[in-house]
């Protein structure tokens, strides 16, 4: 069963969806999802292992992370891009996950304080308007002892060819992928967000998408 929470001005403040790019991104991740998933699966298996209780996901897109949510469980999905919704609903049905779909931004989930046990994200913090506000919101909705589990792409070290490529394509990349930045130091942002403990693995993918290949995966606990 899928329930969709209607959006309002406050729920999506700061998110401006271009209809064409929204549809393109939904189609892109449907087509490229299996390839990206094959690259990311080892880290996702590690950081998403043992999900239980109340789980929320920010930016679930078309449902790439649903296989890591136990069948029969419920997922609160915070996804402002309407073009992703049909694919997300279909993926939830296939996975046997009850979907509570909320058309909101990650900065303003609308969830009560201390209401979920886990928050998960993959390839999302690169594109939110305010990563610090999103991390504060994640801490707010997590219960004591809860965990934020993440797999994200980040800025490469200064002076490397990958960083040069990130700077070269940053504007067309951000335009195409609805604000996605190749140059965010998300590890620093997560470590500075006030979590009680943060575990981070830095690693590199080997894909044709060079600006995307520097990554982090980890768990931040309240």
Summarize the structure.
Helix content is 33%, strand content 24%.
Walkthrough of the structure:
- The chain is built from 5 helices and 8 strands; from the N terminus they run βαββαββαβααββ.
- It has 222 residues and is of the alpha/beta class.
- It has a single domain (2-221), classed as Rossmann fold.
- An 8-stranded mixed sheet has the order 1-4-3-2-5-6-8-7.
- The longest helix has 29 residues, at 19-47.
- The radius of gyration is 16 Å and the shape is globular.
- The two termini are 30 Å apart.
- The model has no long low-confidence stretch (mean pLDDT 89).
Structural class: alpha/beta
Mean pLDDT, rounded to whole units? 89
What's the architecture, going by CATH? Answer: 3-Layer(aba) Sandwich
CATH class: Alpha Beta
Outline the biggest β-sheet. 8 strands, mixed
Straight-line distance between termini: 30 Å
Q: How many helical elements? A: 5
Give me the strand/helix succession: EHEEHEEHEHHEE
> How many structural domains?
1
Tell me, briefly, the overall form: globular
How many strands appear in the DSSP assignment?
A: 8
Catalogue the unreliable spans. none
- Radius of gyration, CA atoms, in whole angstroms: 16 Å
Helix content: 25-40%
Strand order of the largest sheet: 1-4-3-2-5-6-8-7
CATH superfamily: Vaccinia Virus protein VP39
- Hey, roughly how much beta strand do the residues contain? 15-25%
CATH topology: Rossmann fold
Protein name: SAM-dependent methyltransferase
Domain Methyltransferase type: 57-149
Pfam family, one: Methyltransf_11
GO biological process, one term: methylation
């Amino acid at each position: 069963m899928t329930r969709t929470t209607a959006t309002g001005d406050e729920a999506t403040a700061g998110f401006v969806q271009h209809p064409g790019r929204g549809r393109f991104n939904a189609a892109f991740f449907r087509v490229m999802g299996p390839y990206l998933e094959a690259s990311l699966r080892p880290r996702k298996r590690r950081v998403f292992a043992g999900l239980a209780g109340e789980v929320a996901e920010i930016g679930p897109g078309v449902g790439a992370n649903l296989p890591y949510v136990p069948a029969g469980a419920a997922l609160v999905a915070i996804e402002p891009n309407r073009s992703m919704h049909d694919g997300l609903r279909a993926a939830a049905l296939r996975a046997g996950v009850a979907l509570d779909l909320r058309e909101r931004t990650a900065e303003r989930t609308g969830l009560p304080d201390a209401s979920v046990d886990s928050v998960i994200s993959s390839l999302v913090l690169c594109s939110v308007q305010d990563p610090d506000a999103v991390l504060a919101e994640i801490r707010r909705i997590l219960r004591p002892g809860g965990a934020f589990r993440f797999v994200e792409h980040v800025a490469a070290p200064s002076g490397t060819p990958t960083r040069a490529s990130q700077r070269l394509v940053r504007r067309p990349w951000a335009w195409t992928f609805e604000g996605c930045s190749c140059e965010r130091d998300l590890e620093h942002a997560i470590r500075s967000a006030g979590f009680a403990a943060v575990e981070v693995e830095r690693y590199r993918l080997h894909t044709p998408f060079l600006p995307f290949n520097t990554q982090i995966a980890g768990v931040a606990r309240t």
